[in-house]
Design brief:
Layout (H helix, E strand, L loop, with lengths): L3 E6 L6 E6 L2 E7 H5 L9 H11 L8 E4 L3 H15 L4 H13 L4 H9 L4 E4 L2 H10 L6 E7 L6 E9 L2 E9 L4 H11 L8 H7 L8 H8 E3 L5 E3 L15 H6 L13 H29 L3 E5 L6 H10 L4 E4 L5 H16 L23 H11 L4 E2 L2 H13 L4 E4 L13 E6 L5 H10 L8 E5 L3 H4 L11 E4 L10 H5 L22 E7 L4 H14 L3 E6 L11 H10 L4 E4 L2 E4 L5 H7 L8
Parallel strand pairs: 1-4, 4-5, 6-11, 11-12, 14-20, 16-18
Antiparallel strand pairs: 1-2, 2-3, 6-7, 7-8, 9-10, 13-21, 14-15, 15-19, 16-19, 17-18, 20-21
Helix pairs in contact: 6-13, 7-11, 9-11, 11-12, 15-19
Length: 605
């Protein structure tokens, strides 16, 4: 009889659930996709229901439920932190205590209320869950493990080793010394939102120069050769208040924090470049030390810092390891997956056989909608649509992409993790010089400096990018191949800041960042329809690369359902929607009829 384990993460950010059956990942889903609240931290009731529904099991058939961390140990850290610093931070302390004395310390009760008394209730540790999410789905029999984030219970960073079914955490850095919190401090200081704007800071970095790098290493971070470090806490306010930095930090960097939404100055660009440079150096030091103490040929990574694809690319190129595997849902959402796998291999002591290419199943672990469900929805709202066979749909989409149109691509199972990987994606022609600004401003509603990621056929990746292996999860940055880059004029070479946005750095201008890099996703037969689309696009254009950005607008989670996909089509300047076997063309829709037939919450403008 099969053993079913449900992993849960909740109450900080990116709550999620994951169902594992006999050690195989069956389903995983993030609560934000269901509630439409970005980074939703609430108990993942909807995600749990989705995982059970996908797995075809009831709550009474679960053998164990595993929470991704130990709440009492985290509560102990919070109490000790505030008591050590009292009376500073009183207002923050009172707010945090209200949260903890409410739901967070009642997690056992909440799980029992949601899932009943039958399943065993287990608690993992935060960084063990991260380590398990990185090692167990990886293709490696043995690997060094590196986990880095803001903070778990007490731990912020670990180096470990995975062998067979066993994970051993060998070294750690403890709160309040944290690379994740250091990066988040600069996220806050440059005007981005904490715990969601870190990737924007990474995207801003190539526009600046790392002129503050030495200042950071001299005043903020005491970095040792083994990658361990200590922060000078006198510059930070995250231990006592609602801000990440304080006046001393502001004085060091020449003024107060950048106001959100205000125009960026040279300072913000240089700060982004500087903290990115320091982060890469710390991660490289840690990776080299992990190799020294484990002797492993392979490295796996998880934790929020592992989503820094620029640092990951440097580890792969400059580090001592033969290969690298990073958990696609590296943040707290992936903790649910790791907790379930840690219970299977640790608590139940079940052996492990690495899967090829990995056990993550292309991270297509969420819900799918049948053609019958999709058509029923389109009929309900009175949408105009055409049903096409797969080949005709692919050819139609290729024709529209080559004609400069932007197409929503909604197919199969939803992705688990922060990246759209070809099932809930918005696609465009990477060869178009206008496509980046159009998609950023008119469709995504986001900052114009943000780069778009390319999707490329796996078998052609080295022809277009300086990388010699697949990159299926958009977690590695590589330079666009020299053969694709163009020679810049003297004026272009001297351009600085956002003036560089006007420059085409390669013959794929929409996906080439201003430093000549791209956050690459490769696609193979694990996603057959998307691979078929790329092959057809190459047959038509000679180029196997398209823009792939997540199917959402600014401030919203990636779309989950046909309703959300159609709503995004109608509320933006997207042109077409390929949803299941159906093609929906924007200009063919009768807006007045849609307004009459649809509920009042549906906004067309």
């Amino acid at each position: 009889m099969a053993t079913h384990i449900l992993g849960i993460s909740a109450f900080y950010h990116d709550s999620a659930a994951c169902l594992v059956r006999d050690g195989q990942i069956v389903a995983a889903s993030q609560e934000e996709r269901h509630t439409r609240i970005k980074h939703d931290a609430s108990f993942p009731k909807n995600a749990i229901e989705a995982c059970l529904r996908i797995g075809g099991v009831g709550a009474d058939e679960l053998d164990a439920v595993v929470f991704y961390e130990k709440p009492l140990l985290k509560f102990d850290r919070l109490l000790e932190n505030y008591l050590t610093l009292a009376p500073r931070g009183l207002r923050s302390f009172l707010q945090v205590m209200r949260l903890w004395l409410g739901k967070r310390l009642g997690i056992k009760r909440e799980i029992r209320e949601a899932l009943g008394p039958r399943p065993a209730l287990l608690f993992s540790e935060h960084h063990l869950s991260h380590a398990a999410s990185a090692f167990y789905p990886s293709p490696f029999e043995e690997a060094a493990i590196l986990t880095l984030d803001g903070a778990g219970e007490w731990t912020t960073t670990t180096i470990g080793a995975g062998r067979g079914r066993r994970i051993e955490l060998l070294k750690e850095i403890r709160y309040p010394h944290s690379l994740g919190l250091l990066y988040t401090a600069f996220t806050y200081f440059t005007g981005f939102k904490v715990n969601s704007g870190e990737y924007k800071l990474m995207g801003l970095a190539p526009y600046g120069e790392p002129v503050y790098r030495d200042l950071i290493l001299e005043h903020l971070v005491d970095l040792r050769p083994d990658g361990s470090f200590r922060l000078d806490l006198s510059y930070f306010d995250y231990m006592t208040g609602f801000r990440m930095t304080n006046r001393k930090f502001s004085k060091l960097f020449g003024g107060p924090p950048h106001e959100p939404e205000a125009p960026f100055t040279r300072r913000e660009m240089d700060l982004a470049a500087s903290i990115q440079s320091v982060t890469e150096e710390i991660v490289l030091h840690m990776a080299r030390h992990a190799h020294e103490i484990t002797g492993a040929r392979h490295l796996v990574m998880a934790g929020g810092v592992a989503l820094n694809c620029v640092a990951n690319g440097r580890v792969l190129r400059e580090g001592p390891f033969d290969d690298l595997w990073v958990q696609p849902a590296s943040g707290d959402a992936g903790g649910a997956l790791g907790a379930a796998l840690a219970a299977w291999h640790g608590h139940y002591e079940k052996e492990r056989t690495p899967a090829r290419p990995d056990g993550q199943q292309a991270s297509l672990l969420g819900e799918a909608f049948s053609d019958e469900e999709i058509e029923a929805y389109l009929e309900e709202v009175g949408a105009s649509y055409r049903r096409l066979e797969a080949e005709a749909l692919v050819n139609e989409v290729v024709g529209r992409l080559t004609g400069g149109r932007v197409v929503g691509w909604f197919q199969g199972r939803m992705e688990f993790g922060p990246r759209a990987l070809g099932n809930r994606s918005i696609l465009g022609d990477a060869r178009s010089a206008e496509m980046q600004s159009r998609m950023n401003l008119k469709i995504k509603g986001r900052e114009s400096f943000r780069p778009f990621a390319p999707t490329v056929m796996a078998e052609r990746i080295s022809d277009y990018f300086e990388i010699d292996r697949p990159s299926p999860y958009m977690l590695l940055t590589a330079q666009v191949a020299a053969s694709r880059r163009r020679e810049l004029t003297e004026t272009e070479r001297e351009a600085r800041g956002f003036d560089r946005l006007k420059i085409a750095f390669s013959d794929l201008p929409a996906i080439t960042h201003v430093d000549g890099s791209a956050r690459v996703q490769s696609v193979d037969s694990e996603n057959p329809l998307y691979h078929r689309l790329l092959r057809a696009f190459e047959a038509e254009t000679g180029c196997p690369v398209v823009i792939n950005t997540s199917f959402n607008t600014r401030g919203e989670p990636i779309v989950r359902s046909p309703r959300e996909a159609f709503r995004c089509l109608m509320r933006t300047e997207m042109d077409d929607l390929a949803i299941g076997s159906f093609l929906v063309v924007k200009e063919e829709q009768d807006r007045e009829a849609l307004r009459e037939r649809f509920d009042q919450s549906f906004e067309l403008d």
